[in-house]
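Hi R.,

Quick one: here's the TBC1 domain family member 9B sequence you asked about.
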Amino acid sequence: MWLGPEEVLVANALWVTERANPFFVLQRRRGHGKGGGLTGLLVGTLDVVLDSSARVAPYRILHQTQDSQVYWTVACGSSRKEITKHWEWLENNLLQTLSIFDSEEDITTFVKGKIHGIIAEENKNLQPQGDEDPGKFKEAELKMRKQFGMPEGEKLVNYYSCSFWKGRVPRQGWLYLTVNHLCFYSFLLGKEVSLVVQWVDVTRLEKNATLLFPESIRVDTRDQELFFSMFLNIGETFKLMEQLANLAMRQLLDSEGFLEDKALPRPIRPHKNISALKRDLDARAKNECYRATFRLPKDERLDGHTGCTLWTPFNKLHIPGQMFISNNYICFASKEEDACRLIIPLREVTIVEKADSSSVLPSPLSISTKSKMTFLFANLKDRDFLVQRISDFLQKTPSKQRGGNTGGTKASVVDPAPESLPAPQEAPEPPTSLSSPLSSPPSFSAQEVPTTSQGLLKVFQKNSPMEDLGAKGAKEKMKEESWSIHFFEYGRGVCMYRTAKTRELVLKGIPESLRGELWLLFSGAWNEMVTHPGYYAELVEKSMGKYSLATEEIERDLHRSMPEHPAFQNELGIAALRRVLTAYAFRNPTIGYCQAMNIVTSVLLLYGSEEEAFWLLVALCERMLPDYYNTRVVGALVDQGIFEELTRDILPRLSEKMQELGVISSISLSWFLTLFLSVMPFESAVVIVDCFFYEGIKVILQVALAVLDANMDQLLDCSDEGEAMTVLGRYLDNVVNKQSISPPIPHLHALLTSGDDPPTEVDIFDLLKVSYEKFSSLRADDIEQMRFKQRLKVIQSLEDTAKRSVVRAIPGDIGFSIEELEDLYMVFKVTAKHEGRTADQGRHPGDPESQGPKGHLTRRYPLQAKHLASQYWGGSRSAAIHRDPSLPYLEQYRIDASQFRELFASLTPWACGSHTPVLAGRMFRLLDQNKDSLINFKEFVTGMSGMYHGDLTEKLKALYKLHLPPALIPEEAESALEATHYFTEDSSSEEALPQEQQEGSGNEDVQDRREEKGTSPPDYRHYLRIWAKEKEAQKETIKDLPKMNQEQFIELCKTLYNMFSEDPMEQDLYHAIATVASLLLRIGEVGKKFSARTAKKPRDGAHSGDHNSATEEDEPPIPKPHQDPTRECQPPAAGDSQARASGDTHLGKALQDSHVLVEGGSGEGQGSPSLLLSDDETKDDMSMSSYSVVSTGSLQCEDLTDDTVLVGGEACSPTAATSRIGGTVDTDWCISFEQILASILTESVLVNFFEKRVDIGLKIKDQKKVERQFSTSSDHEPPGVLG
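And here's the predicted structure, written out as tokens:
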């Protein structure tokens, strides 16, 4: 590439001059290329350690003048070819012009101007890339791609200098962190280490410090443990690695790739060594933390934050903290954790005003809201800029949501009624008629969709005065008074000051009348509800009458949701629950519906309207309990892992016992999924839910630890899991809420008692108090750190479980070992998950248009390079389009024809050159039993096994079936009509299926037959008889295979010819197949005459499908030696259109043009039949061209006349050629599998070829080598993996 000219003072240090003229010098870096000796090793080591640009550009061109010692760089190159191109351009275009100049200064000025002009012209043609990464970073990315053979789409995020510990020796080098890979490269005195690890393979990532590895980062995969240390900033590196591993786990979980955030604001001054991608990831991390801290909607983006103080009127103090500004909110968090937290939605803001500064109150800013609250911030560093940003965001806020203005003077603003939550004393609207939308969808607009407008508890609870409730009523009244005072002092609604006092009140219990309101506030659901008016009603209307798997599961669970509560013992509550759950399943189909959601939602409906319950469910599923309610309950398993880890740290004695009994995994899942609602009396569990909405998952973990701690002695004495479950179940059953004013609801969890001892009651408030006293050291950021660690374990464990389940589902007679099946599954899954191409659907791996990384990777490993390129950004099709997580593991990943074609090319032992895609297409059609154009792993392995395992007969049988329908489609033959006349669907589509597939589909066939027999089910003996017949039918013999017509046989010969083209025994194999094919053609001819004499079959097509009636006894005899030799040009084989397009070789070409049937010789010793083949391709490494090969001794010399040996089809006379065009294939000609097998057995070289064992493990390793570990050391050297 051309470079902006820069001065070089010492031109020859570490460089070798290779070419020179009076004005330019071409140099190569020492140590690059062959030789170099000790100097080369030292220079190579220096380049790696110092991260020199010479690693990526080892060639350069300098401009020089004769009398000056100063040189100027004008170009550099990564290869000799690239630099030579620049050198020749300079010689051809500049040398003559430069010789005219007299002044050396003029020469240098002219050269510099010319080079700048070339660079400007090149840049003009480039598309603007948006955020431009700094030059140093681009250079590092180029090094990474060159060193590890990464495709263009793989983006470098950052790179760090560090040491990799190989054994006990540290290797200093560079760690490259890309979106999908962790890469490391080191070169020290000739010792090279190159590592590539995919983030999706990482099972453990942690920062630790040991005696051997001081402050290191440990990265574990299933195969290896890697340690990296000596970082300049280990904290920053580890944080970035965590983010990238997290993205990879997210990709495994829901198949979402990483997409760059285009909406991020561009920096005013780009950082020197920080890429746009790194900035993107940092912004994502800050956004996630901001949203989690203040419970904001998922689309909220942090614009910036600044230090300030907030005046708190309740204690008359200026509290220091941070102000956060985003597009819809202004938030404040005090430095001291519980001192104060504040959320001000911009829709509520009426006035933003800059107050006068003073020494006591520097740079104050006053913000007023609709609810007549005013917030005073001070000590703002850049107040004017801040006010401008707030003003910009306010202008974007919809006018109907806000009132007022911003400015330096206070204006009198007539505001709309302030946004406030419904006060408890407001008279509720009468509930409208609640009918089931699924049973009878009414026809009304979204505004008329029936929804309950208040909590079901208010509808079904008898409103008795507080005075009648005695002490409980008095306690409830006191709680309401306390909250009223709190609202007066701290504000009410979204803009309330949240302090330690708020937490105290929550822990003492929220009054029944305020519970729904405060849940909405603390969860952040209120914000989403007011910004999406009418959204729920619209969803209910859209989801009416829609049927799905989720709605089926919802209907099944509706009557299991708190059946003990009167609200859900009638259609009113059930219909409301149905609408909320169905609406959410419609909103979020990736979650849909999960068990336990019904229990939680039914409680939400007791305290809020349907719309409020819906938005609370959104907050729970999408923010507060991430990934809890998906098909694999990953989030709950992650938090269960955290619980086990905390138990190990805090209650070590008990932890050992619990692990021994295996209890924790049994109990904790239901605790977390239902927030204790399913294991505790309702009125007690709801108090835990109060705290959960305020504190998050921390409370659930604390209470779980407190429960174990309270039962420690009894649990330590337990002898089995059942006893431990009984202890905990009895304890939780007797956690009571003595302050509840609701009538007690019988808890349907089994009432467990032991002996005659009455159960001891535990007050829920005492349990909460103990949990805060003993275990309140848990912090939100610590929990997030632990969640990351556990998420790696859980997701990788689930992946392993899925892999084992799929492998177990494969029949034992497949032939592959468990390890081979697991490796094949990983290859299959990666292909199924990361397919992102639509334009490539019809292309083959050999096509020049095929996308893929350029360079050695594409040349050496075309499929793998293409596969790697398909993984990265911007796939034109969403990843894992063929994956349905609700299906069984075996059916979750399926591949289409183009994906199968690529896998087939990579793994098949029958490489056929350009004919391979044709064979792959036939194999795919054979395996695609249900004709949905997708195959699962079992079908894939069945096809692979047919090629790799079994004896000669089995392999030939698999190859034979590939040349019969349904594998061979009519379009692949020129005479399609005759082919279909011979092989109807009845005779081919069922019989041509692989044996293993028929076994797998046996049960389905039985089911179909049952349905055909009628509705009255026969007895079990009938089914057993059918099953026995099916099993007998599966034992396919070679006699069951249909016969092959002439076209199909020619296609088989073409495949065999291509298959032998790259074999070391190529010549011998060609001789053998020529002999065999010629013999078989004669057998078919004689059989045709024999059939015509005996059966007198008509030739009008009425005999279609009758070829199977021929038995072994009818097999035509081999022609006698005394028959007269005849020669005739037969109609050609139909070539596959793709094969023709890509230049089908060897027999394919020969048979497209013509073929000769030779019947000659007067005895086996003198001569036997031979098929003589043609080829239009020359082979450089052959002493004999393949098209002139005949079987040695098969023909006498006098038989080898000019019209026998075909070269490009010249043997056929013009008359024969014209008749070929309009002719038809002989439809009476056919051959059986037994005849083909018997003929091949006569040639030992063919027998050896098919019985030769091929190790599929080596082919899988080749693919993994490209995916995991590969590097290049020079332009022309093959990639080698070291270390």
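DSSP finds 47 helices and 26 strands in the chain.

Cheers,
M.
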